[in-house]
Every structure is written in C-alpha cells, then in structure tokens.
Amino acid sequence: MSLGRWLAAAGLVVLTGTAVAVYSMGPASGDEPARAAATPVDAPAEVTAGRTPPPGDAPAGAAVAAPPPSTAAADPLLSGKRRITIVRVGAFESGLALLDGGRLAEVDDDRGRQVFVPTPVGSGQFLVKAYHGGGTGQPVCWQVRNPGDSRPLHVRGAACRADDPAQRFEITAVADGGPREYLISNRWAYLRTSARSGLIMEELGDAPPASSFRFTDTGPAPRR
To answer: Looking at 82-91, 125-134, 206-215, which range is the least confident one?
Structure first.
C-alpha cells in the first residue's frame, strides 16, 4: 500500500471513532433541566382524593384542586332575588309566618307574612324580609328580641335596617342534610322550636342545633 493510501485510511478511522464517541455522549449538562421539566409529575394523594393540600406543600407543577364553593352562598334562593317559604324540618302541615303585630311562629293557615326574601348584606349575613302572600306590600324584617325577663329570645318584625346586628342572620347549609335544608342563627343563637314557647332563639353551647329549616322557591322577589 502506498504511503498516501495508508494515511487516508488512518484518517478515516480517526474520524469514524470521533463520530461514534460524540453520538454516544449524553446531552450537555445545561440540557438536563429541560428534560426534567418534560417529565410528567404525578399529582399528590391529596389532590387525587379531591382535597387541597396546605399552601406551600404542593409540589411544583402539580395542579391543586380549588376548594368547593359554599352551598349556602351558591344557592340562588339566597341572592335576594327569589321569594321563599320556610318550613321546619319535621313540622306537620305548618310553615313559618311573621304574625301581624307579633312574633315569628308556625301556622297551618294563611295568617301573617309567610313569604320571605333572604337578602345578602355582606359578611355572609342576611336580612330576612317578610311579605304578605305573593310578595305584596312593604316588607318588614326579622329581628331578634330580648324580652328582658325569664322568657327566651325570639324573632319579631321590625322596620328593615341592614346596620342592626339583631337583624343580620346567618344561614348555613346542614351537613348531609336534605335539599335546601338550613340552620338559621344570629350571634350564636339558633332558631329552634320549643314545646313550651314555640319558635325561639337559643344559644346552644356545645349542643348541636335542634331545628333545621327547608326553603322552597315561590318565584321572583318583589322589585324594591
């Protein structure tokens, strides 16, 4: 073999070996983050189960499920745009009525104001406006009254004032309750029935609320 041919063959071998070495090398160190970012990240067990992990605990890249909205806040009956009737769960053929010149009671006839419009006033609280049948006339609002003697707190009608704490009620969906079943409270006192005194407002301490109420849609609220 001539010297020229031998040198050409040797050069070909060197080039081939270099190409093989370059092909066999992994990507440069600066490319590793890009590969890692493309690797799927499994969602943590809390997200898979529908629970939201505490802030700061979720791994980067994991989609965190948003907490479900409050049932009470999402109910259109609590928008101030619908009128309702209210019946105590377990009551027999009677509904709530704000008696003319009197207090909130359960009746089985057409006495008093039996149409109500829960109207949001902020901070998760509501005025409960009361109307005569069909939503007619000027409304009056529920107001907690303290008779100042041994008798329990109760609800009576009053001119509506959104800044009066005694008129600002909390309406809370009953956990595992029926459709549109709510607890009604005002400053730690819950609306409940009493065998002796009828509907009263009572602070329950550690005891669970004794009465819950079902709301029924009866149409659009009066425009006022």
So the answer is: 206-215
Give burial (CB, 10 Å; 0-12/13-18/19+) of 206.
Answer: exposed
**DSSP code for 28:** -
The Cα–Cα gap between 190 and 92 comes to: 21
List b or e across 58-80, with b for residues whose CB sees 16 or more CB atoms inside 10 angstroms. beeeeebeeeeeebbeebebbee
- Phi-psi group of 147: left, alpha or beta (phi > 0 → left; psi -120 to 50 → alpha; rest → beta): alpha
Could you report the per-residue pLDDT of 11-42, keeping only the tens digit for each? 433 333 443 333 333 443 443 333 333 333 33
Which tens digits make up the pLDDT trace of 87-144? Answer: 999 998 899 999 987 899 999 999 999 999 999 999 999 999 999 987 878 999 999 9
- Number of residues in the chain: 224
CA separation, residue 62 to residues 31, 44, 53, 68 (Å)? 22, 8, 11, 18
Distance from C-alpha of 162 to C-alpha of 152, rounded to nearest angstrom: 24
Q: 153 by DSSP, 3-state: which? A: strand
Residue 170 has a CB neighbour count (10 Å cut-off) of 17
Task: Please name the residues in contact with 4: beta carbons below 8 A apart, sequence gap of 6 or more.
Answer: none
Report residue 101: phi and psi, to 5°: 70, 10
Cα(160)–Cα(61) distance, integer angstroms:
51
pTM greater than 0.70 (yes/no): no
Helix, strand, or coil (residue 164): coil
